[in-house]
Amino acid sequence: MATAPRPRTSTREPEELGRRLGAWLDSRLPGAKVTDVRVPGSNGMSSETLLFDIEHPDTPLRACALRLAADPAAYTVFPTYDMPRQHRVMSLVAEHTDLPVPRVQWLEEDPGPLGAPFFVMARAEGRVPPDVMPYTYEGNWLHAATGTERDALQEATISLLARLHDQFPAQEAEFLLPAGEGSPLRRHVDSQRAYYAWVVGGLAPSPLIERAFARLEELWPADKGPAVLNWGDARIGNVVYDGFTPVAVLDWEMAAYAPREVDLGWTVYLHRFFQDLTVSFGQPGLPDFLRREDIERRYAELTGHTPRDMEFHTLYAALRHAIVMLRIAYRQAHFGEVEVPADPDSLILHHASLAAMVQGTYW
User: Fold this and answer.
1) How far apart are CA 92 and CA 88, in angstroms?
2) Active-site residue among 233, 251, 276, 309?
3) 283 partner at 20 to 30 Å CA-CA among 26, 131, 140, 345?
């Protein structure tokens, strides 16, 4: 299984960012020195992360990570990047739950110092299941683990979702509710429709994505259930593990006020995305890991809430992921890395599985 070069995500230079970061930090913490500035190999496809250390006698924060809003010159994945919102979510999760959320420190809303708003948080040490090559493929620590070790990681990760949904007071998340009318689920889906319209504005639309939206309406839950704080990008690739124990829950930019199943559907499908991709290249992947039935069963045992309408929610997750994939593909075209084909659906890496979900033949 070969991989294409990682798509371009920024026009920024890490060395220049480090210099400007040092000047900014000196204004906040006079005499502080920024050292060992680097970009992680797993830097995200949307917001950017910068790792660095601080040398100063008066701060307990030494190992740091900086979350920087997307480079506006790099054909951003999302139309807006609300760093104060992410900072607030992480602060509230740390306040109200026992999840290992990195301690957030400074928030800078002025785009002047680094070219975009950002915040600084404590850096967790550990390892993250890789996306490239995906952890379902041979040659990484999770694939090489024993079944017992992967079971432990799966159990601990499902527990993160259960504890977040149960411990966080739902009313504290209502500020995440998108403008509009209807239930939290209706508003969440409507916001995704608006996002899709932004992605294809002036470009070829995706007939498959539009069929998937129509299928959602046919499968619309009769009982949508109560809304809770959703992590948003709920997957093991956004967790730092010490051994097989979570020590940091990352990437809260997609946090939402929505039914529990929105998070669960994303967890189920994002693993299926990597598993299906691996199988398509002739490898077995990890067929016994993060299976839908196991996630649903264990979540119900931990919370007392039996997940419902999961065909709807896994389709919704695959649809949402398809919109992101289409935007990333159009960004690659913008930078001359790929050509746009006659059929835009072919730009969606998981178009076959999404089509099967629309047809009701996937599960």
Assistant:
1) 6
2) 233
3) 345
